[in-house]
Design a protein that fits this description.
Elements lengths: L6 E5 L3 H13 L3 E5 L2 H11 L3 E5 L7 H11 L4 E6 L4 H9 L4 E4 L5 H25 L9 H4 L4 H11 L5 E4 L6 H12 L5 E5 L5 H9 E2 L11 E2 L1 H4 L4 E5 L6 H13 L1 E2 L8 E2 L3 E6 L3 H6 L5 H7 L2 E4 L10 H16 L8 H9 L5 H15 L18 H21 L4 H8 L3 H11 L8
Parallel strand pairs: 1-2, 1-3, 3-4, 4-5, 6-13, 6-14, 7-10, 10-13
Antiparallel strand pairs: 8-9, 11-12
């Protein structure tokens, strides 16, 4: 949240004092609306949607405590600072007991008193936003650089060159090549203080993607029972990663163009223009130029997102990368499963290097996870990897055989209990029952 996006409403019947407070806060970078009538403040509250209300405690018609009560009915999370000319402990304590964050005295002793009081509220709200974001994601430490970029010297140098700039980056690569991981590395190398916020444009329904990106106001649509901040607002001072940007609808592409050109956007249901300073990284596994020619992706947006394109080669083209990545994944899985340290033999690493990995790192991770489930000792037991002739049906047979063996093994350990076996495999009972039927796995049946 930037100060420009932090909206303050000041309510004071003394116009000269109101204008003084408004100027002090606007000079400090905040967006401010000043009103002399509490009833007008109530009427404009929903449309202006302030982050903070500063109100005089004593006003004709309605005092500040009553105004706070009315506005909290509309938004219980709104913060208040009270202005009082009666600087007694009793009035201050009463106001804060009823929900005020702070109070200042009239006449104002010095502008810094107001600035500090508002800054405390602003920082608290900003930290709450960031904490909400961090709690919604689990960030694990990134793998060592030498593990990630073995066999990708050119790619690594490109990332080093662009990371410290504000340039928009477009990551090209097949599914499973690690585009999200590379985006996180660019964010970390950039030194940005804000969070890394990602969203997969193909994984969210078209009618929900816009609200996820830009947020919405209470009542913007059916089910919008409270305000929600979007990814661009949450990523202030940080990075927004838009995976599979090629899947955006034409209407949303137009709005993304505005974000890239003007660095502004609006929440759904609001006319207030918000600004973003987030760095934007996009990714796709499709040919964007081909989509432009087919009129399925906007040409002007293509030129905006492809300022600095980076191609991530598939795993089959960087075989020297496979051993390091596999060993790192095994270490992570060993810790996650709590089964002690596991290791790969040189023979197994050789097998991994010979296999073409049509599913790239994601497929490698799946194979290693299944192997972890099957292995009993400290040595990881790799299944036979079927070399696909056409990267198609035989590859599927290989993965299916791995999955079938894992299910049979789990059922054996669970003495036929499907529920226990599902728990061991980390899948739902319904999914396990479907797989048993699909693979025609026989054996003792137990609930």
């Amino acid at each position: 949240m930037s100060r420009e996006n932090f909206r303050i409403m000041i309510v004071d019947d003394e116009r000269s004092f109101l204008l003084l407070l408004k100027k002090i806060l606007e000079d400090a970078g905040y967006t401010v609306k000043g009103l002399t009538d509490p009833e007008e403040a109530i009427n404009l509250f929903d449309s202006y949607n302030p982050n903070l209300v500063i109100t005089d405690l004593k006003m004709p018609g309605m005092d500040g405590i009553d105004l706070m009560g009315e506005l909290k009915k509309k938004n219980n999370e709104i913060d208040f600072i009270m202005i009082t000319a009666f600087a007694t402990v009793e009035t201050a304590v009463d106001a804060m007991k009823k929900g005020a964050a702070d109070y200042i005295t009239k006449p104002l002793r010095e502008p810094e008193q107001l600035r500090l009081s508002v800054a405390r509220v602003y920082e608290q709200q900003r930290m709450l936003d960031e904490n909400r974001l961090l709690k919604s994601r689990i960030f694990q430490d990134l793998p060592p650089v030498e593990t990630i970029f073995a066999g990708m010297k050119k790619t690594y140098q490109e990332i080093l060159d662009v990371a410290e700039t504000d340039a928009t980056v477009l990551l090209y690569g097949e599914t499973g090549t690690g585009k999200s991981l590379i985006a996180k590395i660019i964010h970390r190398l950039s030194g940005r203080s804000g969070p890394f916020v990602d969203i997969n444009c193909a994984a969210i329904p078209e009618n929900l993607l816009e609200s996820e990106l830009f947020g919405y106001e209470k009542g913007a649509f059916t089910g919008a029972v409270s305000q929600k901040k979007g990814r661009f607002e949450l990523a202030h001072d940080g990075t927004v990663f838009l995976d599979e940007i090629s899947e955006m609808s034409p209407a949303l592409q137009a709005k993304m163009l505005r974000v890239l050109q003007e660095r502004t956007f609006e929440r759904l249901g609001s006319l207030n223009i918000l600004k973003t300073n987030a760095r934007i990284i996009t990714a796709t596994n499709r040919d964007l130029q081909g989509l432009v020619r087919a009129k399925k992706f906007r040409e002007d947006l293509y030129y905006r997102v492809s300022v600095f394109p980076v191609t991530i080669p598939p795993l089959r083209e960087r075989k020297e990368n496979i051993g390091g990545i596999a060993e790192y994944l095994v270490d992570v899985m060993s810790a996650r499963f709590g089964r002690g340290e596991k290791s790969l033999s040189e023979i197994d690493v050789g097998k991994l290097k010979e296999y073409p990995w049509p599913g790239n790192i994601r497929e490698l991770e799946n194979v290693l996870e299944r192997s972890m489930i099957l292995s009993k000792g400290s040595q990881l037991t790799l299944p036979d990897l079927i070399m696909p002739e056409d990267m198609g049906s035989q590859h599927e047979v290989g993965l299916r055989s791995i999955e079938m063996v894992a299910i049979e093994n789990a059922l054996g350990k669970a003495d036929g209990s499907r529920k226990k076996a599902a728990d061991m495999l980390g899948i739902s009972l319904r999914s396990l029952q479907y797989k048993i039927k699909e693979y025609r796995i026989a054996g003792k049946r137990s609930s």
